[in-house]
Amino acid sequence: MSSLTTFQSITQAVNRALAQQPVSDMHTHLYPPSFGTPVASSTSQSDPAGLMLYGVDELITYHYLIAEVFRVVPATKLPYESFWKMSRAEQADHIWKHLFIDRSPLSEACRGVLTTLQKLGLDISDRSLAPARKWFAQQNPSQYIDKVMQIANVDSITMTNAVFDDNERARWLADPNVGSDPRFRAVLRIDPMVLDWPIASKKLTQWGYPCAETIDDATINQAQKFLNDWLARMKAIYIAVSLPPEFRYPSTQPSDQVLEKIILPVCAQRGLPFAMMIGSRRGVNPRLNDAADMGGLSDVQSLTALCRNFPDNKFFCTMLARENQHELCVAARKFGNLMVFGCWWFLNNPSLIKEITKMRLELLGLSMIPQHSDARIMDQLIYKWDHSREIISQVLADKYADLARTGWAITEEEIQRDVKLLLKDNFIDFLGR
Ligand code: FIX
Ligand code: ZN
């Protein structure tokens, strides 16, 4: 196959490769219909606490946009309590009016709604939500997932399965097949075990795994059994936690022992990665509920201590602070058991994805996972991946053009191979390593 030499031919080949390569999305908050859909449809009844979210009202009331609307209609004008008392559709109308109609929807989260509706073929040129609402009400949730995955070109969705969430745990216990949709894979999410062992140990005890606050041998056995039982029930592909900027290892806190004696040995025995998403400071403005969190600077050396002390463990890591990204890349150069992933949450903006992806390519070559979607609402897969693909394409085209200038011959097949590593194989291979 002939090599690509001009910037234009390289750009076209990269764009084609990005568009054609299906993504295995390694971190979302999406669920199949078996976890319930809050909106009734032709095939399912309404389940108000259902976990599969989709549709225009959910898209517009994404927690990113709730935070944004309180900037332009402050709580002095519309108290938080009044907003939370509104129905989903009323909240969506409020956000639509203030963030899309009264001013141009320039923020990334606003733009995402518009990209999604456009790619679904919904015409909102008259700026009315009624036709989109009508269209979504007619969708069959399972077929709709196929449609979204096809438009977003995503071949596998990784869930976040919070075992300490009563609603979610009850669904797994009630139906052994709740997680068997082949389009989705489970992840055991266990934040309280690392963040608040006294509370977590009480919960485990209530659930039939007697654990003490002091981490003795019996407690280690029971807590490991708890993890093993849930990993098996969920067929989980990794264990995950989200941690605050203050997370330290070692720390003399119970989290040291929980990691060393409970979580990491189970991961190592089962060959599962441990995913650490570090830097989320929860509840900064608690009245914003799901939108209350922000980020902060984390400690990369705590991560390197874990990678060094546990060479038989595999670690996925993403950090929320822009200021951590360079040190995190350098840490990954030192540890083959560390896989850096994604531009998380407040970093999931074109300017920052560009900067971070470029830096990762320069420091780590192709040995990283540039992005995950973190989608909470099914439809968001469309915009999150559309916007990210565009940026990854631009960054890669520049890098291949730099290579071409050295006289290195680049073929379209090689570009396709590399893009497959970034969007799929690095994730899959790390799981199987
Ligand atoms: O902890 C997490 O997995 C975070 O991604 C979420 O909890 C957060 O609310 C979010 O949606 C970020 O994109
Ligand atoms: Zn997340």
Order of helices and strands: HEHHHHHHHEEHEEHHHEHEEEHEHEHHH
Strand content: 5-15%
Q: In terms of structural class, how would the helical and strand content be classed?
A: alpha/beta
The best one-word shape is globular
User: How many DSSP E strands?
Assistant: 11
Radius of gyration: 22 Å
How far apart, in Å, are the first and last alpha carbons? 32 Å
Number of helical segments?
18
Average pLDDT metric: 97
Low-confidence stretches: none
Cofactors, ions, other ligands: D-fructuronic acid, zinc ion
**Considering DSSP H and I runs of 4 or more, what fraction of the residues is helical?**
40-55%
Task: Tell me the strand order in the biggest sheet.
Answer: 3-5-6-7-10-11
Largest sheet: 6 strands, parallel
Concise overview:
The chain has 433 residues and is α/β, with parallel strands linked by helices.
Notable traits:
single chain; 433 residues; alpha/beta; six-stranded parallel β-sheet; three-stranded parallel β-sheet; 18 helices; 11 strands; 51% helix; globular; binds zinc ion
What does this structure look like?
The protein has about 425 residues and is α/β, with parallel strands linked by helices. It has 18 helices and eleven strands. The protein has helices at about 5-20, 55-60, 65-70, 80-85, 90-100, 110-120, 130-135, 140-150, 165-175, 190-195, 195-205, 215-235, 255-270, 300-310, 325-335, 350-365, 380-405, 410-430, and strands spanning about 25, 155-160, 160, 185, 190, 240-245, 275-280, 280, 295, 315-320, 340. Strand 10 (about 315-320), helix 15 and strand 11 (about 340) form a beta-alpha-beta unit. Helix 6 (about 110-120) packs across helix 17 (about 380-405) and helix 15 (about 325-335) packs parallel to helix 16. The longest helix is centred in the C-terminal third of the chain and has 26 residues, at about 380-405. The radius of gyration is 22 Å and the shape is globular. Zinc ion (ZN) binds near residues 27, 29, 160 and 374.
